[in-house]
Amino acid sequence: MDFLVVHSLLLREPNLLLPLLELSNIDKEDSDCYQLKVLKSHESLDLSDTGRVIYVVKGHLLQQVNNLKQNKQTVNAIWMEHDFIFHNVFQATHYEYIALGHTEVAIYDANVVLQALSGQAFFPDLLIDTLKHQETLFYQYSHMLTKSVQERVIDIIKLLSTREKDGYHIPKTVNYLLLSKCCQISPHTAKKAMQELELANKIIYKDGKIILDHNSDYSDS
Fold first, then answer.
1. For labeling, which of 8, 18, 25, 148 is most exposed (least CB within 10 Å)?
2. Alpha carbons 130 and 119: distance in angstroms, whole number
3. Segment 30-50, tens digit of pLDDT
4. What is the pLDDT at residue 10?
């Protein structure tokens, strides 16, 4: 098996940063180097300005930009389970991270991580792969904003819901306010889009659950 084959195998999901971190000598008893935090729904992740590597163990993190002048919060990325976030590592950012539902995150000191893993043979490739994933996520999210309102709503619902045999089971945390922030529309517009999906029988109520049909497509809004 040559290098390129091994390399492609190593970059399979989930990426290998986590096992490399687990094998490193990072002192998890030192709260300056490592913290495991459990966040309630809508709870903000309190971070200092120093570089941090955030690993989403469970749940979702909304990456939010706060516009103080307009008193408006806009989601510009949604981080999923097994994602790594390099916060203030390569450039200063002013993002806020909000938990969607019960969320668990592991927070590492970025300098400690880079020092501990810099000697690993595949670490540069894994780091590049992680940063490419981050760029792809940002691009996909910005591209979503070029779509119609109903397309945005369906995309976000599918992303944040659990796929079951009868459709996408929508959690209670996905409400009009959340959809408006994620889709960059007003709560009224989000509510209207949901009502249109209900009238088209693309969203149904079954045994107390809200379900989006698997075959939901888009129509002009």
1. 25
2. 17
3. 888 999 999 999 899 988 778
4. 55
Whether 191 has a pLDDT exceeding 60, the answer reads: yes
The one-letter code for the residue type at 161 is S
DSSP for residue 147: S
Alpha-carbon distance 168 to 158, whole Å? 6
Contact 87, 93 (CB under 8 A): yes
CA 157 vs. chain centroid, Å, equals 13
Q: Please choose, from the candidates 171, 157, 172, 147, the residue with its C-alpha nearest in 3D space to the C-alpha of residue 214.
A: 157
89: which DSSP letter? S
The predicted-structure confidence for 145-161, as pLDDT tens digits, reads as follows: 899 999 999 999 999 99
Confidence (pTM): 0.81
Please choose, from the candidates 30, 43, 39, the residue with its C-alpha nearest in 3D space to the C-alpha of residue 57. 39
* Helix ranges restricted to H, the chain: 3-10, 17-23, 110-117, 123-144, 149-160, 176-183, 187-199
* Residue that is written with structure tokens 């922030």 in the block: 181
